[in-house]
């Protein structure tokens, strides 16, 4: 009997340890250090103008393999220091990402981001682009650009910080209205939740409610609140996107998407990230829960 209880205790502790891997600490946990010790990386291709989503091929028509995991070709990801503080520089030259080794669920994420000056094909004549991808699961290279895991995107783009994109087969419902063209959010309880993404009639893109981005060269504070199937995109203190019913579609089945890794994109633009911190949310704070009531 004693040995059985001991075995049960070991199994219970093991189960709790496995579960806790999905939860950040109650206090703010710094995710960024000079060695990128809490992150891995993936690089796909240096895409060209006219890319149509296919696997690139060489002159003989043979498929080109992606660069792959943890091969920092062309030093796409590097740590620079400012006043002794580590800052992640993403050159953008090759499409890909850094992603956390750990998965997270029910959390408040904070980080600061600002643009560099460089741009690369196929976006040399387009807005600078990056993104924070959350609830990221599975293998990398599952999206149109063959660079990222399936997940939800907090868009980081010039003039569009806080927009939403689906990645691969993800879907979500957003409190928004439908003008001509893309959906716009209003971050208000006066609007319905509209579904978009895989398995819906709408494309997986939605504009934030307002532009809160600071001028070029200044740091922007980005916050992401995730609890259960709900999330909020916050830019420089302002809620600009209210989302719920996070999910993805696989083999025709709809599956909840409420936990996963974080990805920071390399997407043809130079961008800098710092002060990347996360903490556990035991419940959705009242000021944020109010956005989901009618």
TrEMBL record:
Domain of life: Bacteria
GO molecular function annotations of the record: hydrolase activity
Ranges of residues in domain 3-keto-alpha-glucoside-1,2-lyase/3-keto-2-hydroxy-glucal hydratase: 27-279
InterPro entries attached to this UniProt entry: AL/BT2_dom
Name used for this protein in its record: DUF1080 domain-containing protein
